[in-house]
Amino acid sequence: MNLQTKLTRLAYLLTIYSFCTTLAAQPFETVVIDPDGLPVPDMVVYMVTHSKHEGIESNVTQELVEQKNKSFFPFVNVLQKGQSIRFENTDDITHHVYSVAGNNRFEFKLRGGEQYVTQPLQHPEEVAMGCNIHDWMSGFALVVDTPFFGKTDVDGKVNFDLPASGTYTAFVWHPQLEVTGNRLSKTIILDNKLASLIFQLPQKIKPASQQSNSSEFEFLEDY
Amino acid sequence: MHKYVISFGLLSLALSANGTEQSIKGIIDVRLSSVVNSGKSYISGGYGKFNHPEGLNFSLEQLGVHYAIDFTSQWSANVVANASTENGLGQIGVSEAYAQYKWVPSVNGIRVTAKMGLYYPKISIENVSIAWSTPYTLTSSGINNWVGEELRNTGFNISVEKLGKFHQSEHNFALSIDIFQNNDTAGAMLAWHGWTVGNQQSLIHQKLPIQQFSARDRELAFQAELSDPFIELDNRWGGHISGDWSYRRRLSVTLGVYDNNAERGIVKNGQYTWDTAFLHSAIKFRISEQWEILAQFMQGQTTMTSPKNLDLVDNKFSNHFLLARRWWDQHQVAIRLEKFKVEDLDEIVGDNNDEQGRALSISYRYKINRNVFLLAEYSVIHSDRWSRTYNELPSKLTEQQYQIGTRYYF
User: Which of A9, A144, B33, B141 is deepest in the core (most CB within 10 A)?
Assistant: First the structure.
């Protein structure tokens, strides 16, 4: 084997190695805790990569938001740019759903039992949803420009499968997180050693929402 | 503005609307009532302060239907029809007919709603359910029973709300302005039978019997037998303005001024103009998860003048009530205390409308399921009203009413 052939093989192997390294998903865990160290569920966590990763597909599923017991469920949602929201009214009354601020606007009446799918939301930003009939109803969706996102579970955790190397910024967002932009961030360089990240919130998050489901009488009108 | 043109116009629009979203909501309220020491009800021209006459009565109290069509998510046409049996006589007809445009809020949380047609001025905090029914008790308070009897706007409303949640604020504000016609006789029934407790909702075609008193043979001889509550006599517009402040869903405060701006001294076919103006206010306070207090206050004056500018009726009136309610599981208990007064300021003999009194209602509601409720209520009204002596009844009277009823909402 001549030197040229050896070098060609080596280059080939190196290419395969680096390709494998790039695509090898690395589990990465983020944990969100409150000032007392207790886990906080339903926090949006998303990771923005600083380098290009080929071959990662965008999410195209519809994000389901129900109108249930005169409230938006879930209260907090997260989706990737280009995804749509599917609203499903499981109440037997009509709701008039709107988003009136920002660039992802929509507005429609939804009768009991019916559903509506929005256009794909193309603008990464916070979407505040309301009902024009039941003013106390509110819900939020954060549109992110990254495929790496999730909401914390009861243990305050979100698990990601990230491409194994590179620099990332991790964000934690919640509509009731009272800091600039309702979010905190940390930039990390991901290598094989760092496998988790803890976010401690500067304050507790208020109870899930002010949406009220306690209605002993359900036939109130707009008089 | 002609009330029949509006209501039948909206009704025919509603019935001819194809491809739009239509909805029907309704209430059926059936009662058994027993009235003690009251005589003939005000509803049939007596002085009884309940809407049922003395004795045992079975009644279809309300069959109310609200029919709405949505032309778009913001444009709607609405017709509310009601049927009831009163003293064995059936009444059926339209109580409201209006078109409404309700914008979605702006980025700043400002929402505008415009309404046109026949509708209730926003005064009552009790009558907040389908077809203007009250969910809390079997009867409306004196204030709102009068609103249902004699007040209805034929006109325009514009209301502007500022929704706090757009600014992370717990405070909401609203300003509502009406201009209206067809309410020139408002005040007549309040003067002549005084404050009453019941479920009155006059229909737009309905005429109301007037009590017998001796001035009707003299100075008031030109007054028609029946008052037409929703008639235009002077072609002037009245106004109503009210403001609201609410904090979270716990507290709301309303203040309003109503003036029908009637030109005094006009009489057509026995219907006189009554210049009626009042202040009203309301507070609703949710003390805790299962306790709530509602209170309303009203104070004003109504004057009816002859074409020769003689004050035939000049009355000041006031009323306030406090309602406390508590609910748990399937149960709700409500207690309402009222105090009311009419002060007769004119010199006409044989038409003394002075009145003062108090009322108490205790109500129990049981929820059988989401749509069906059973209710029982005891009411007592103690009042001193001189005009009862014209019908050989005592001036001071304590009237009582026992009711059981069932309500079905659909």
Answer: B141
Contacts of B248 in chain A (CB under 8 A): 210
Q: What does the alpha-carbon distance between residue B180 and residue B201 come to, in Å, rounded to a whole number? A: 18
Assess if residue B70 is contained within a domain.
Answer: no
Helices (H), chain A: 3-23
The interface predicted TM-score of the complex, written ipTM, equals 0.89
Nearest to B93 by CA among B85, B108, B105, B83: B83
3-class DSSP assignment, residue A19: helix
Q: Residue-wise pLDDT tens for chain B (410 aa)?
A: 577 777 677 767 766 666 578 899 999 999 999 999 998 999 999 999 999 999 999 999 999 999 999 999 999 999 999 999 965 668 999 999 999 999 999 999 999 999 999 999 999 999 999 999 999 999 999 999 999 999 999 999 999 999 999 988 999 999 999 999 999 999 999 999 999 999 999 999 999 999 999 999 999 999 999 999 999 999 999 999 999 999 988 999 999 999 999 999 999 999 999 999 999 999 999 999 999 999 999 999 999 999 999 999 999 999 999 999 999 999 999 999 999 999 999 999 999 999 999 999 999 999 999 999 999 999 999 999 999 999 999 999 999 999 999 999 99
Closest in B129, B367, B370 to A221, CB measured: B129
Residue of B nearest to A132 (CA): B104
Cβ-based interface (< 8 Å): residues of B facing A: 21, 23, 25, 27, 66, 70, 73, 102, 104-107, 111, 120, 122, 124, 127-130, 132, 135, 163, 165-166, 172, 248-249, 289, 327, 332, 367, 370, 409
Check A96 against B104: CB less than 8 A apart: yes
Residue B149 within a domain: yes
- Reference B99, options B126, B72, B128; nearest CA is B72
For residue B108, the domain's CATH number is 2.40.160
Among B107, B127, B409, select the one facing A101 at the smallest CB separation: B107
Count of domains forming chain B: 1
CB contact under 8 A, B129 and A219: yes
CA contacts within 13 A on the Cβ side of B325: 24
Q: Which two tokens stand for residue A110?
A: 């939804």
* Closest approach of A101 to chain B, Cα-based (Å): 5
Give B355's contacts (C-beta < 8 A, 6+ positions apart): B194, B195, B340, B341, B342, B383, B384, B385, B386, B387
User: Are the C-beta atoms of residues A223 and B122 closer than 8 Å to each other?
Assistant: yes
CA A179 to the chain's CA centroid: 18
Burial A132-165 (b: 16+ CB within 10 A, else e): bebbbbbbbbbbbebbbbbbbeeebbbebebbbb
Whether the Cβ atoms of residue B352 and residue B386 lie closer than 8 Å to each other: yes
Q: By C-alpha distance, which of B175, B191, B209 is closest to B43?
A: B209
